[in-house]
Amino acid sequence: MTVSMAPIAVIAAEDGPDPLLPHTSELIVGLVAFALLFFFLRAKVYPIFERTYAERAAAIQGGAQKAEEAQAEANRLLEEYRAQLADARSEAARIREDAKQQGAAIIAQAREDAEAEAKRVAARAEAQLQAEREQVLRELRGEVGSLATTLAGKVVGESLQDDERSRRVVERFLADLETAQASDAAAARDA
Amino acid sequence: MSTRIVAESGFHSPGPADFEFPPLFGEGTFFTKPMLVIVLGTIAVGAFFYFAARRSTLVPGKLQFAGESVYGFVRDGIARDAIGREGIKYVPYLATLFCFIAVLNISGIIPVLQLPATSKIAIPLFLAVISWIIYNYVGIKRQGFGGYFKNMMFPPGVPKAIYPLLAPLEFFSTFIVRPFTLTLRLTFNMFAGHLVLLLTILGGEYLIFEYQGLVGVTAGSVSILFSIVLTFFEAFVQILQAYVFTLLSAIYIGGALTHEH
């Protein structure tokens, strides 16, 4: 060390104090000042800074967490809405399908009903017709009988008073007529 | 020795003599200008931090932000980087160290004061000694007395053949070289910076007012202008040296705490 400081020491000897020699009272003042500063700052300042850092970090973390929670909540709601929307869509489709089926069923039912009604109406009409025809036939037969008897009496010139006989005649005539008709029809059918 | 020649022609060249100050309050009192700088600088740092931390809020005001930035710079930029997670324990010392050195360096370019108190070797010396005590203390406390010396002088992962050479070097480096380099680096950066500023300012002044003439005024003006540029450069060096001293202290502490060098 003595070697390295030699050139400076030369100047120092000529020009002033050796810059390598510590000044005792400066050292003491400096040490005391530094110590006071250190203990003051350590007691009054650094803990406050550290506390503020910690609080700030906590606040930022809390904020981030809150944001995260809000995000999660929003996502959950979105999922829910989507699910609800999908449900509603499938429900609507189902209802539409049902309605279509029901419509088809109603139409089929209505058609069936209408057909049955039509058949029923037709059957009733036929039955009525039959009844009327029979009635007409019956009336006609009576009338034709009396008419023919009257006519035959006039032709014969003798009253065919004997109702029993005249009725038998008429019956026979009508029976002949019917068989002739039937054989005509059979002939026509065979032909 | 060229300054000698100039000195003979009437110019007093700045030298170590400019670092000697008579007592401020007359003969027999001990209080000198460097001490005044120390006291003022200490009060300034203390007041700055006191007002920065007073009424501390989550959303900081300007002053609080400034204080927190300085503290945070040492905390995260120096302690955490150089020491690691454990570094937080040493932040109070390192932050105080950084601010103390920085303000006593900066006092070299503060008008009226214009003396870097750290150019007086006493200041860097006791700071280096404190750092020296701390890093050796934590090293011995952490690794045990034998372990600390063993890990320092015989670091693992080095070929055994090198140990005879390495062991004395490491010992010498850790116990003797480190405190001296810390002290001398800071002291003579400030010393030399102050001398250069004095030389350009006093020299320029001498050239303009004493030497006179076109040459004197021109050269003197250039010298004065150059001193302004140098002042900015000095401001940079002053902060840088405070950072270097603090960072090296932190690295030494970190090195003592871990087994690796």
TrEMBL record, chain B:
<feature type="transmembrane region" description="Helical">
    <location>
        <begin position="214"/>
        <end position="233"/>
    </location>
</feature>
<keyword id="KW-0138">CF(0)</keyword>
<feature type="transmembrane region" description="Helical">
    <location>
        <begin position="90"/>
        <end position="115"/>
    </location>
</feature>
<keyword id="KW-1003">Cell membrane</keyword>
<comment type="function">
    <text>Key component of the proton channel; it plays a direct role in the translocation of protons across the membrane.</text>
</comment>
<keyword id="KW-0406">Ion transport</keyword>
<dbReference type="GO" id="GO:0005886">
    <property type="term" value="C:plasma membrane"/>
</dbReference>
<keyword id="KW-0066">ATP synthesis</keyword>
<feature type="transmembrane region" description="Helical">
    <location>
        <begin position="161"/>
        <end position="180"/>
    </location>
</feature>
<dbReference type="Pfam" id="PF00119">
    <property type="entry name" value="ATP-synt_A"/>
</dbReference>
<keyword id="KW-0813">Transport</keyword>
<dbReference type="InterPro" id="IPR045083">
    <property type="entry name" value="ATP_synth_F0_asu_bact/mt"/>
</dbReference>
<keyword id="KW-0378">Hydrolase</keyword>
<keyword id="KW-1133">Transmembrane helix</keyword>
<dbReference type="InterPro" id="IPR035908">
    <property type="entry name" value="F0_ATP_A_sf"/>
</dbReference>
<protein>
    <recommendedName>
        <fullName>ATP synthase subunit a</fullName>
    </recommendedName>
</protein>
<dbReference type="GO" id="GO:0045259">
    <property type="term" value="C:proton-transporting ATP synthase complex"/>
</dbReference>
<feature type="transmembrane region" description="Helical">
    <location>
        <begin position="186"/>
        <end position="207"/>
    </location>
</feature>
<dbReference type="GO" id="GO:0046933">
    <property type="term" value="F:proton-transporting ATP synthase activity, rotational mechanism"/>
</dbReference>
<feature type="transmembrane region" description="Helical">
    <location>
        <begin position="35"/>
        <end position="53"/>
    </location>
</feature>
<keyword id="KW-0375">Hydrogen ion transport</keyword>
<keyword id="KW-0472">Membrane</keyword>
<comment type="similarity">
    <text>Belongs to the ATPase A chain family.</text>
</comment>
<dbReference type="GO" id="GO:0016787">
    <property type="term" value="F:hydrolase activity"/>
</dbReference>
<feature type="transmembrane region" description="Helical">
    <location>
        <begin position="121"/>
        <end position="140"/>
    </location>
</feature>
<dbReference type="InterPro" id="IPR000568">
    <property type="entry name" value="ATP_synth_F0_asu"/>
</dbReference>
<keyword id="KW-0812">Transmembrane</keyword>
<feature type="transmembrane region" description="Helical">
    <location>
        <begin position="239"/>
        <end position="258"/>
    </location>
</feature>
